[in-house]
Design goal:
14 helices; 8 strands; globular; 8-stranded mixed β-sheet; alpha/beta; disordered C terminus
Length: 358
Protein backbone atom coordinates (compact mmCIF):
# COMPACT_ATOMS: atom_id res chain seq x y z
CA UNK A 1 0.00 0.00 0.00
CA UNK A 2 1.42 3.37 -1.04
CA UNK A 3 1.88 6.14 1.56
CA UNK A 4 -0.86 8.21 -0.11
CA UNK A 5 -3.29 5.29 -0.01
CA UNK A 6 -2.43 4.59 3.63
CA UNK A 7 -2.96 8.22 4.56
CA UNK A 8 -6.32 8.29 2.78
CA UNK A 9 -7.38 5.09 4.54
CA UNK A 10 -6.39 6.57 7.88
CA UNK A 11 -8.43 9.72 7.22
CA UNK A 12 -11.46 7.65 6.20
CA UNK A 13 -11.10 5.47 9.29
CA UNK A 14 -10.90 8.51 11.56
CA UNK A 15 -13.96 10.04 9.89
CA UNK A 16 -15.93 6.83 10.39
CA UNK A 17 -14.85 6.61 14.05
CA UNK A 18 -15.80 10.26 14.60
CA UNK A 19 -19.22 9.71 13.04
CA UNK A 20 -19.78 6.62 15.20
CA UNK A 21 -18.65 8.54 18.27
CA UNK A 22 -21.10 11.39 17.61
CA UNK A 23 -23.95 8.99 16.83
CA UNK A 24 -23.33 6.96 19.99
CA UNK A 25 -23.24 9.96 22.29
CA UNK A 26 -26.28 11.55 20.66
CA UNK A 27 -28.14 8.36 21.45
CA UNK A 28 -26.62 8.03 24.92
CA UNK A 29 -27.36 11.63 25.98
CA UNK A 30 -30.70 12.00 24.26
CA UNK A 31 -33.29 13.31 26.75
CA UNK A 32 -36.58 13.97 24.96
CA UNK A 33 -39.30 15.98 26.62
CA UNK A 34 -42.41 14.20 27.90
CA UNK A 35 -45.14 16.71 27.14
CA UNK A 36 -48.71 15.55 26.62
CA UNK A 37 -48.93 17.11 23.17
CA UNK A 38 -47.13 19.49 20.84
CA UNK A 39 -49.22 22.33 19.39
CA UNK A 40 -48.60 24.35 16.25
CA UNK A 41 -48.66 28.14 16.30
CA UNK A 42 -48.56 29.70 12.80
CA UNK A 43 -47.17 33.22 12.58
CA UNK A 44 -48.37 35.91 10.20
CA UNK A 45 -45.05 35.86 8.34
CA UNK A 46 -45.15 32.18 7.50
CA UNK A 47 -43.40 30.34 10.34
CA UNK A 48 -44.88 27.38 12.22
CA UNK A 49 -43.87 27.45 15.88
CA UNK A 50 -44.21 24.57 18.34
CA UNK A 51 -45.41 24.61 21.93
CA UNK A 52 -45.04 21.59 24.18
CA UNK A 53 -48.08 21.25 26.45
CA UNK A 54 -48.23 19.75 29.95
CA UNK A 55 -51.83 19.43 31.05
CA UNK A 56 -52.82 20.01 34.71
CA UNK A 57 -52.28 16.96 36.89
CA UNK A 58 -54.18 17.88 40.06
CA UNK A 59 -56.39 20.43 41.77
CA UNK A 60 -58.52 23.05 40.05
CA UNK A 61 -57.62 23.89 36.45
CA UNK A 62 -55.58 27.06 36.80
CA UNK A 63 -54.79 29.67 34.11
CA UNK A 64 -52.35 28.71 31.34
CA UNK A 65 -48.66 29.36 31.81
CA UNK A 66 -46.49 30.34 28.84
CA UNK A 67 -42.81 29.42 29.33
CA UNK A 68 -40.31 31.21 27.06
CA UNK A 69 -36.65 30.20 26.83
CA UNK A 70 -33.53 32.33 26.59
CA UNK A 71 -31.02 33.00 23.84
CA UNK A 72 -29.37 29.96 22.23
CA UNK A 73 -31.75 27.55 23.97
CA UNK A 74 -35.01 25.77 23.19
CA UNK A 75 -38.06 24.78 25.18
CA UNK A 76 -36.06 22.22 27.16
CA UNK A 77 -34.96 25.15 29.29
CA UNK A 78 -38.39 24.85 30.93
CA UNK A 79 -39.38 21.29 30.05
CA UNK A 80 -36.07 19.48 30.47
CA UNK A 81 -35.77 15.87 29.42
CA UNK A 82 -34.96 14.83 32.99
CA UNK A 83 -38.27 15.22 34.85
CA UNK A 84 -36.80 16.47 38.13
CA UNK A 85 -35.61 19.63 36.35
CA UNK A 86 -38.75 20.25 34.28
CA UNK A 87 -40.47 23.46 35.40
CA UNK A 88 -43.43 22.57 33.19
CA UNK A 89 -43.88 19.17 34.87
CA UNK A 90 -43.55 20.77 38.31
CA UNK A 91 -46.18 23.43 37.61
CA UNK A 92 -48.55 21.00 35.93
CA UNK A 93 -48.63 19.01 39.16
CA UNK A 94 -49.90 22.18 40.88
CA UNK A 95 -52.81 22.44 38.42
CA UNK A 96 -51.35 24.74 35.77
CA UNK A 97 -51.79 24.17 32.04
CA UNK A 98 -48.21 24.72 30.81
CA UNK A 99 -47.05 25.63 27.30
CA UNK A 100 -43.30 25.69 26.60
CA UNK A 101 -42.53 27.65 23.43
CA UNK A 102 -39.83 27.04 20.85
CA UNK A 103 -39.13 30.43 19.30
CA UNK A 104 -38.46 30.42 15.54
CA UNK A 105 -35.28 28.63 14.58
CA UNK A 106 -35.14 26.75 17.89
CA UNK A 107 -36.11 23.22 18.90
CA UNK A 108 -38.96 22.03 16.71
CA UNK A 109 -39.83 25.49 15.35
CA UNK A 110 -37.75 25.18 12.19
CA UNK A 111 -40.29 25.63 9.42
CA UNK A 112 -40.28 29.16 8.04
CA UNK A 113 -39.38 31.31 5.05
CA UNK A 114 -36.79 33.61 6.64
CA UNK A 115 -33.30 33.04 7.99
CA UNK A 116 -32.72 36.33 9.76
CA UNK A 117 -34.74 37.89 12.56
CA UNK A 118 -34.30 39.72 15.85
CA UNK A 119 -36.03 40.37 19.16
CA UNK A 120 -38.55 42.68 17.50
CA UNK A 121 -39.63 39.75 15.31
CA UNK A 122 -40.25 37.61 18.38
CA UNK A 123 -42.38 40.39 19.87
CA UNK A 124 -44.26 41.17 16.67
CA UNK A 125 -44.80 37.63 15.38
CA UNK A 126 -43.82 34.78 17.69
CA UNK A 127 -45.38 35.81 21.00
CA UNK A 128 -48.75 36.84 19.48
CA UNK A 129 -48.84 33.48 17.66
CA UNK A 130 -48.15 31.69 20.94
CA UNK A 131 -50.85 33.68 22.76
CA UNK A 132 -53.34 32.75 20.04
CA UNK A 133 -52.39 29.07 20.15
CA UNK A 134 -52.85 28.97 23.93
CA UNK A 135 -56.22 30.71 23.59
CA UNK A 136 -57.32 28.21 20.95
CA UNK A 137 -56.33 25.31 23.20
CA UNK A 138 -57.74 26.63 26.49
CA UNK A 139 -60.22 29.40 25.72
CA UNK A 140 -58.19 31.73 27.93
CA UNK A 141 -57.32 35.20 26.65
CA UNK A 142 -54.46 35.81 29.08
CA UNK A 143 -51.45 33.78 30.17
CA UNK A 144 -49.17 33.77 33.16
CA UNK A 145 -45.83 34.46 31.51
CA UNK A 146 -42.56 32.94 32.77
CA UNK A 147 -39.41 33.90 30.88
CA UNK A 148 -35.73 33.16 31.38
CA UNK A 149 -32.99 35.53 30.20
CA UNK A 150 -33.97 36.64 26.67
CA UNK A 151 -37.41 35.15 27.33
CA UNK A 152 -37.71 37.43 30.37
CA UNK A 153 -36.66 40.44 28.29
CA UNK A 154 -39.34 39.59 25.75
CA UNK A 155 -41.88 39.16 28.54
CA UNK A 156 -41.23 42.60 29.98
CA UNK A 157 -41.62 44.24 26.58
CA UNK A 158 -44.69 42.10 25.78
CA UNK A 159 -46.41 43.27 28.97
CA UNK A 160 -46.28 46.77 27.50
CA UNK A 161 -47.01 45.87 23.88
CA UNK A 162 -49.67 43.19 24.51
CA UNK A 163 -51.07 44.08 27.95
CA UNK A 164 -54.38 42.29 27.44
CA UNK A 165 -52.62 38.95 26.85
CA UNK A 166 -50.46 38.71 30.00
CA UNK A 167 -51.93 38.46 33.52
CA UNK A 168 -48.65 38.28 35.45
CA UNK A 169 -44.93 38.04 34.73
CA UNK A 170 -41.99 36.07 36.14
CA UNK A 171 -38.61 37.37 34.99
CA UNK A 172 -35.76 34.94 35.67
CA UNK A 173 -32.42 36.66 35.12
CA UNK A 174 -33.91 39.25 32.79
CA UNK A 175 -31.65 42.27 32.03
CA UNK A 176 -32.85 45.58 30.64
CA UNK A 177 -29.58 47.44 31.37
CA UNK A 178 -26.30 46.47 29.73
CA UNK A 179 -23.62 48.97 30.82
CA UNK A 180 -20.52 48.10 32.85
CA UNK A 181 -20.47 44.44 31.83
CA UNK A 182 -17.13 44.04 29.98
CA UNK A 183 -17.36 40.24 29.71
CA UNK A 184 -20.78 40.50 28.13
CA UNK A 185 -19.42 43.07 25.67
CA UNK A 186 -16.63 40.62 24.78
CA UNK A 187 -19.15 37.84 24.23
CA UNK A 188 -21.24 39.99 21.89
CA UNK A 189 -18.14 40.82 19.83
CA UNK A 190 -17.77 37.12 19.01
CA UNK A 191 -20.66 37.50 16.56
CA UNK A 192 -18.14 38.69 13.98
CA UNK A 193 -16.52 35.23 13.99
CA UNK A 194 -19.73 33.54 12.92
CA UNK A 195 -19.16 30.71 15.40
CA UNK A 196 -22.61 31.21 16.86
CA UNK A 197 -24.14 29.63 13.78
CA UNK A 198 -22.54 26.30 14.71
CA UNK A 199 -23.14 26.40 18.46
CA UNK A 200 -25.79 23.67 18.37
CA UNK A 201 -23.56 21.09 16.69
CA UNK A 202 -20.49 22.16 18.67
CA UNK A 203 -22.37 21.73 21.96
CA UNK A 204 -23.48 18.25 20.96
CA UNK A 205 -19.94 17.30 19.92
CA UNK A 206 -18.32 18.35 23.22
CA UNK A 207 -21.15 17.17 25.48
CA UNK A 208 -19.52 13.80 26.32
CA UNK A 209 -16.37 15.54 27.56
CA UNK A 210 -18.01 18.45 29.37
CA UNK A 211 -17.86 19.31 33.03
CA UNK A 212 -14.12 18.99 33.67
CA UNK A 213 -13.18 22.39 32.18
CA UNK A 214 -14.90 25.65 33.05
CA UNK A 215 -14.10 28.39 30.47
CA UNK A 216 -14.77 31.89 31.78
CA UNK A 217 -17.15 32.73 28.93
CA UNK A 218 -19.23 29.65 29.75
CA UNK A 219 -19.38 30.77 33.38
CA UNK A 220 -21.21 33.90 32.18
CA UNK A 221 -24.21 31.76 31.32
CA UNK A 222 -24.05 28.93 33.86
CA UNK A 223 -22.21 28.04 37.05
CA UNK A 224 -21.15 24.58 35.94
CA UNK A 225 -20.13 23.66 39.49
CA UNK A 226 -23.75 24.15 40.56
CA UNK A 227 -25.07 21.66 37.97
CA UNK A 228 -24.79 17.89 38.17
CA UNK A 229 -22.51 16.67 35.40
CA UNK A 230 -25.09 14.31 33.79
CA UNK A 231 -27.53 17.23 33.62
CA UNK A 232 -24.93 19.57 32.13
CA UNK A 233 -24.05 17.01 29.47
CA UNK A 234 -27.71 16.57 28.56
CA UNK A 235 -28.16 20.33 28.50
CA UNK A 236 -25.45 20.60 25.85
CA UNK A 237 -26.78 17.62 23.90
CA UNK A 238 -30.45 18.61 23.88
CA UNK A 239 -31.19 22.20 24.85
CA UNK A 240 -28.62 24.45 23.16
CA UNK A 241 -29.22 26.17 19.82
CA UNK A 242 -27.35 28.41 17.40
CA UNK A 243 -26.98 32.13 18.07
CA UNK A 244 -29.03 34.08 15.53
CA UNK A 245 -27.14 36.91 13.73
CA UNK A 246 -30.01 39.42 13.88
CA UNK A 247 -30.55 38.76 17.58
CA UNK A 248 -26.85 39.22 18.29
CA UNK A 249 -26.82 42.50 16.35
CA UNK A 250 -29.66 43.82 18.48
CA UNK A 251 -27.94 42.78 21.69
CA UNK A 252 -24.77 44.44 20.42
CA UNK A 253 -26.73 47.69 20.12
CA UNK A 254 -28.04 47.23 23.67
CA UNK A 255 -24.49 46.81 24.99
CA UNK A 256 -23.05 49.65 22.89
CA UNK A 257 -25.73 52.14 23.92
CA UNK A 258 -26.88 50.67 27.25
CA UNK A 259 -30.33 50.64 25.64
CA UNK A 260 -33.33 48.34 25.43
CA UNK A 261 -35.13 49.35 22.23
CA UNK A 262 -36.37 48.15 18.88
CA UNK A 263 -33.61 47.69 16.32
CA UNK A 264 -34.80 50.67 14.28
CA UNK A 265 -34.93 52.86 17.40
CA UNK A 266 -38.64 53.59 17.01
CA UNK A 267 -39.70 51.94 20.29
CA UNK A 268 -37.88 52.33 23.61
CA UNK A 269 -38.96 49.20 25.46
CA UNK A 270 -37.26 50.27 28.67
CA UNK A 271 -39.23 53.52 28.74
CA UNK A 272 -42.47 51.51 28.57
CA UNK A 273 -41.82 49.48 31.72
CA UNK A 274 -43.08 52.08 34.25
CA UNK A 275 -46.44 51.92 32.48
CA UNK A 276 -46.79 48.15 32.93
CA UNK A 277 -49.43 47.17 35.47
CA UNK A 278 -49.14 43.37 35.62
CA UNK A 279 -47.87 41.83 38.87
CA UNK A 280 -44.25 40.80 38.37
CA UNK A 281 -41.63 38.69 40.13
CA UNK A 282 -37.97 39.45 39.40
CA UNK A 283 -35.48 36.69 40.25
CA UNK A 284 -31.72 37.20 40.37
CA UNK A 285 -28.72 34.95 40.99
CA UNK A 286 -25.50 36.00 42.77
CA UNK A 287 -23.20 34.39 40.18
CA UNK A 288 -25.12 35.44 37.10
CA UNK A 289 -22.70 36.83 34.52
CA UNK A 290 -25.34 37.91 32.00
CA UNK A 291 -27.83 39.53 34.38
CA UNK A 292 -26.04 40.32 37.65
CA UNK A 293 -28.24 41.13 40.65
CA UNK A 294 -27.80 44.89 40.21
CA UNK A 295 -29.10 44.63 36.64
CA UNK A 296 -32.17 42.64 37.71
CA UNK A 297 -32.77 45.14 40.50
CA UNK A 298 -32.70 47.97 37.94
CA UNK A 299 -35.46 46.24 35.95
CA UNK A 300 -37.43 45.74 39.14
CA UNK A 301 -37.08 49.42 40.03
CA UNK A 302 -38.55 50.50 36.69
CA UNK A 303 -41.59 48.22 36.82
CA UNK A 304 -44.87 50.09 37.27
CA UNK A 305 -47.10 47.31 38.59
CA UNK A 306 -47.12 45.31 41.85
CA UNK A 307 -43.72 43.65 42.10
CA UNK A 308 -41.44 41.41 44.09
CA UNK A 309 -37.68 40.95 43.99
CA UNK A 310 -35.99 37.73 45.10
CA UNK A 311 -32.43 36.40 45.00
CA UNK A 312 -31.81 32.69 44.64
CA UNK A 313 -28.70 33.06 46.81
CA UNK A 314 -25.97 30.50 47.22
CA UNK A 315 -24.05 29.42 44.13
CA UNK A 316 -26.80 30.06 41.59
CA UNK A 317 -25.81 31.50 38.23
CA UNK A 318 -27.78 32.34 35.10
CA UNK A 319 -28.98 29.05 33.61
CA UNK A 320 -28.70 27.07 36.84
CA UNK A 321 -31.70 29.07 38.08
CA UNK A 322 -33.48 26.32 36.12
CA UNK A 323 -31.02 23.42 36.14
CA UNK A 324 -29.02 23.92 39.34
CA UNK A 325 -28.61 21.07 41.79
CA UNK A 326 -31.25 22.45 44.16
CA UNK A 327 -33.34 24.50 41.70
CA UNK A 328 -36.34 22.14 42.06
CA UNK A 329 -36.38 22.79 45.83
CA UNK A 330 -35.30 26.44 45.89
CA UNK A 331 -36.54 28.13 42.69
CA UNK A 332 -39.46 26.06 41.43
CA UNK A 333 -41.61 26.40 44.58
CA UNK A 334 -41.14 30.17 44.48
CA UNK A 335 -42.48 30.28 40.93
CA UNK A 336 -45.42 28.10 41.91
CA UNK A 337 -46.29 30.29 44.90
CA UNK A 338 -46.20 33.50 42.86
CA UNK A 339 -48.30 32.05 40.04
CA UNK A 340 -50.84 30.65 42.51
CA UNK A 341 -51.03 34.04 44.18
CA UNK A 342 -52.07 35.59 40.88
CA UNK A 343 -54.37 32.81 39.66
CA UNK A 344 -58.05 32.17 39.78
CA UNK A 345 -59.21 28.79 38.43
CA UNK A 346 -59.57 28.96 34.65
CA UNK A 347 -62.98 30.29 33.70
CA UNK A 348 -63.66 31.69 37.18
CA UNK A 349 -64.32 35.37 37.79
CA UNK A 350 -61.41 37.48 38.98
CA UNK A 351 -61.03 37.47 42.70
CA UNK A 352 -62.39 33.95 43.25
CA UNK A 353 -60.60 31.98 45.95
CA UNK A 354 -57.21 30.74 44.83
CA UNK A 355 -55.80 27.29 45.19
CA UNK A 356 -53.72 26.80 48.33
CA UNK A 357 -49.97 26.46 48.11
CA UNK A 358 -48.66 22.91 48.09
Amino acid sequence: MSPATAALAAVVALAVLAALHVAFWRWRLNAPTREDEVLEAPTRDGWTLRLGRRRPRAGPRLPPVLLVHGIAMNRQAFDFGVERWSVAAFLSRAGFDCFALDLRGHGRSRRGPSRRWNLDTYLREDLPAAFDAVRAATGEERVLYVGHSQGAILGMAACALHPSRIAALVSLGGPTHFAHQPRLATLVKLRHLGAGRFLRELARAVAPFSGAWHPSLVELAINVRNVERPIYRRLLANALEDLQPGVLEQFAAFVREDSFRSFDGAVDYRALLPGCRQPALFVSAPRDGLAPPAVVEASYALWGGPKKLWSAGGDFGHTDLLLGRTAPEVVFPLLRAFLLEHSAPAGAPAGEARAPSR
